[in-house]
Amino acid sequence: MDLTERALEFETRKMSNMSTSDRVEASREAKALILEINEIYKETKDSDLMDMMKRLTEKKKKIEKRLKGAPLV
């Protein structure tokens, strides 16, 4: 499976009912995908790759926000 297919599969994956360890694993997977896409983007400057990185980053932020929990006020 190539990089874009893995990224699209990650984007469409459901993130509900995940355990904490699943969230950590998903966050690490997202980070790895983003870094791999970034290496290719540096060479090609393809705007589709940038859009994909942005979507993955958004999903990664949501996962990490859920991991950290709500701030105590």
Radius of gyration (CA) equals 13 Å
- Proportion of beta-strand residues: under 5%
Structure classification: mainly alpha
Q: Total helix count? A: 3
Q: Judging from the principal axes of the Cα atoms, what is the shape?
A: elongated
Helix content: over 70%
Low-confidence stretches are none
| Number of extended strands | 0
Structural summary, described in words:
With 73 residues, the protein is mostly helical. The chain has one domain. The protein has 3 helices and no strands. The chain has helices spanning 3-12, 20-44, 47-68. The chain is elongated and about 45 Å long.
Which tags fit this structure?
single chain; 73 residues; mainly alpha; 3 helices; 78% helix
Q: What is the gist of this entry?
A:
With 73 residues, the chain is an all-alpha fold. It has three helices and no strands.
Task: Record the SSE blueprint.
Blueprint lengths: L2 H10 L7 H25 L2 H22 L5
Helix pairs in contact: 1-2, 1-3, 2-3
